[in-house]
Amino acid sequence: MNNLLKLLVLGAVFAAVSSVEVRPHAAGSEQHEKTVREGDAVRDESVDNYITMVLENFAIAMRTGIPILGIPILDPFNISKLDLPTINTSMLRLEANASDLSVSDTSSYVPTYVHVDFETNAMYLNLHFLDIRVDGDYWCDGMAAVIFPVFGDGFFYINIMSIDSSGLGAVIITEDDHLQITELSLELAYDRLEIYFDNFLGGGDFGEEVNQAISVLADTIVQEILPLLNTAIIPALVVYINDALMQITISDIIGGGSV
Ligand SMILES: *[C@@H]1O[C@H](CO)[C@@H](O)[C@H](O)[C@H]1NC(C)=O
Ligand SMILES: *[C@@H]1O[C@H](CO)[C@@H](O)[C@H](O)[C@H]1NC(C)=O
Ligand SMILES: *[C@@H]1O[C@H](CO)[C@@H](O)[C@H](O)[C@H]1NC(C)=O
């Protein structure tokens, strides 16, 4: 996942560089070429700034929901039940589930990079989250290191720390001069987890097996939750940004109109 994040960021840097690239051209067209290039730079920046502002507003919309656009409350994002895949490694075999989950601070992001590349009709966006918190109840039962029973049942929380979300989208310009997103994918990568599982028992004398089991369980829960989050947030984000882009033409964004 980290590799993919790096790849997408690389892609974004490449696109930013290529849009100011000076191409070989005939001497006579030099002045014209220069004007077009400068025009592109302004156009990129004002559109990028506009979308950045819309992303900041979306964070507020996530906490209230926007019924008229069919956008539900996304912060907190509730999941009533999560069936987890059986964990089966050489060190651990564990059946588990989780319920009454509340995923909060999903709106606590800052847009760190937004760019629309009009030459390739691509949109790049990076969001940084300080953390996203998962609260819920869990149940698990299994064996660690072949011989130690491990089991638990109760409250848990997981703080997913320092999340970077890297997005790649496709855009079109409509006949009446509105930018619209047609596709968007988001990859989420995180640094580390802070975890607490109440009433998790078992293991050997020093409980090392319990710590490992908890850590694997937390990771499994996060791996199941992140795609659900993406599935809920991406369509809402696209609807929200497209709605905002329908309120203003690209010419008006560039002209510094009613932003
Ligand atoms: C999510 O769960 C919390 C806590 O249980 C609750 O207060 C809130 O109303 C729920 N939100 C939605 C959108 O269901
Ligand atoms: C767990 O893994 C072991 C070894 O790979 C395999 O023999 C066993 O069938 C697996 N059990 C389940 C329930 O998947
Ligand atoms: C989790 O699984 C256990 C064992 O199968 C079951 O008793 C419990 O009801 C399940 N919890 C939920 C929320 O489904």
UniProtKB/TrEMBL annotation:
Keyword ATP-binding attached: no
Tree of life domain: Eukaryota
InterPro entries assigned: Haemolymph_juvenile_hormone-bd, To_sf
Span of the signal peptide: 1-19
Keyword check for ATP-binding: no
UniProt KW keywords: Signal
Name assigned to this protein: Uncharacterized protein LOC108682872
Phylogenetic placement of the source organism: Eukaryota, Metazoa, Ecdysozoa, Arthropoda, Crustacea
